[in-house]
């Protein structure tokens, strides 16, 4: 089961606008996959930014059938003009060779090193829907609930109940460095950007594995609310020490 992040390298002024990017993608989705209906969790996440002054937009697909349907249309955008709130020309569509492009499988999320520490960096404002309002603090339970919910919705495995309870009840924050930043959604809100190291004390091997796998998944799925607008863009980072976290 493949999951993919494709990056559109753009020519134009400034980064794409969140609502414009979502509107463009929904039009593309309706044409390529009209039978896809809202099932609670979005099987995709969007992103945008600047790299060396060059704007880019990102489409991350969490289901293999979605990739099969949408990839021809997405790769076919190369050289075309698109409107993502403002007009851009798509210079390239990348599956690799860009920091926010990549391809993996759900099985690979559970391979590689695992640890009782999960260092995550939040690159775009990240917030959560809580009691009817947007909440901007990256509390362990909120972050892990978001990641586990999406991982289990589209992946083949579900966390054992004891492991899930351990992650949600015992995980704490070992290090935090960041700030709030405005997010442009349908209403004014703020989200968190910065670095957090989450820690699960006395983690078993299985618990550490289930802490690390959602951390790898964050690169594709995003975290929290409004990932369809490019918010919650996050990825694990290499933790050298508390001063480098």
TrEMBL record:
Pfam families: CRISPR_Cas6. Residues 120-232 form the CRISPR-associated protein Cas6 C-terminal domain. This is CRISPR-associated protein Cas6 C-terminal domain-containing protein.
């Amino acid at each position: 089961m493949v999951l993919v992040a494709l990056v559109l390298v753009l020519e134009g002024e400034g980064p794409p606008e969140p609502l414009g990017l979502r509107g463009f993608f929904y039009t593309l989705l309706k044409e390529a996959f009209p039978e896809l209906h809202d099932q609670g969790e979005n099987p995709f996440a969007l992103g945008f930014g600047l790299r060396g002054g060059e704007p880019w937009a990102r489409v991350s697909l969490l289901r293999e059938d979605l990739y099969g349907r949408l990839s021809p249309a997405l790769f076919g955008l190369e050289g075309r003009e698109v409107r993502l709130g403002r007009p851009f020309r798509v210079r390239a569509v990348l599956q690799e060779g860009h920091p926010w492009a990549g391809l993996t499988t759900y099985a690979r999320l559970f391979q590689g090193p695992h640890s009782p520490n999960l260092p995550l960096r939040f690159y775009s404002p990240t917030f959560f829907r809580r009691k009817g309002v947007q909440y901007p603090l990256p509390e362990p339970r909120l972050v892990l609930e978001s990641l586990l919910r999406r991982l289990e919705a589209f992946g083949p495995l579900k966390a054992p109940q004891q492991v899930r309870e351990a992650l949600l009840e015992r995980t704490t924050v070992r290090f935090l460095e960041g700030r709030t930043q405005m997010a442009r959604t349908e209403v004014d809100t703020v989200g968190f950007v910065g670095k957090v190291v989450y820690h699960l004390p006395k983690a078993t091997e299985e618990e550490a594995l289930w802490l690390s796998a959602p951390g790898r998944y964050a690169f594709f799925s995003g975290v929290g609310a409004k990932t369809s607008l490019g918010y919650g863009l996050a990825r694990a980072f290499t933790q050298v020490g508390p001063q480098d976290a």
